[in-house]
Each structure stands twice: as structure tokens, then as C-alpha cells.
Design goal:
Blueprint (H helix, E strand, L loop, with lengths): L5 E10 L5 H15 L10 E8 L4 E10 L3 H18 L18
Antiparallel strand pairs: 1-3, 2-3
Helix pairs in contact: 1-2
């Protein structure tokens, strides 16, 4: 019975390097508090830590323990919480940047 099983959603949150880690972790604490209010999310859900230093981003990772039968809707709900909380706290998400150099003489 899927309604009795638990799923562990691993959610990476890529964040711009310019944002101080302390600020991001405070925002993640807010995100986690909101996520735990979602029906089907268990209290053992947690912030794991920094999981990767990418070319364009620092990846912060959450482990969300939830009911398996509703895990994909829960993930969508949490992604929305992440986006709105990042907007409120003015935290930038990274984006791909291309630097172009030319040797053009005028």
C-alpha cells in the first residue's frame, strides 16, 4: 500500500555564489518550516547542507520525507515555496552566463 510508505525527496536548490551562506541557510530554515506544514510531509525532513559547488551555483540540499503516494505534488508545492521565499528574501538564482571576447580592431 503506497499510502503507508515514505519517500525521500532530495531537492537541490542552486543559488548564486554572491549570496552569503548564512543568509541562504536562514531562508532554507523558513522554507523547511513551510514545507513541514504540507499534508503528507514528515517532521524528520531536514536541510542536508551544501552538496555541490557548480560552475554557476552553490547547491544547497533538502531531504523531504513524505508520503510516497503524493510525493510529486509535494515536490511541486515545495518548489513553489522555494521560489516565493527566495523572491521575498531577494536571493538570486544563478543563470548561465556566456562571456564573449573579440579581437576586433576599429
Amino acid at each position: 500500500n503506497l499510502s503507508q510508505k515514505k519517500a525521500d525527496l532530495i531537492i537541490d536548490i542552486p543559488t548564486a555564489y554572491e549570496i552569503k551562506t548564512e543568509k541562504v541557510e536562514k531562508t532554507i530554515a523558513k522554507i523547511l518550516d513551510e514545507a513541514k506544514k504540507i499534508k503528507g510531509v514528515y517532521s524528520e525532513s531536514k536541510y542536508i547542507g551544501i552538496s555541490k559547488l557548480d560552475d554557476n551555483a552553490v547547491n544547497y540540499t533538502l531531504s523531504i520525507i513524505c508520503k510516497q503516494d503524493n510525493q510529486w505534488q509535494i515536490k511541486r508545492d515545495i518548489l513553489r515555496i522555494i521560489k516565493t521565499t527566495y523572491e521575498k528574501d531577494k536571493i538570486k538564482k544563478p543563470y548561465q552566463q556566456i562571456e564573449v571576447h573579440t579581437n576586433e580592431r576599429l
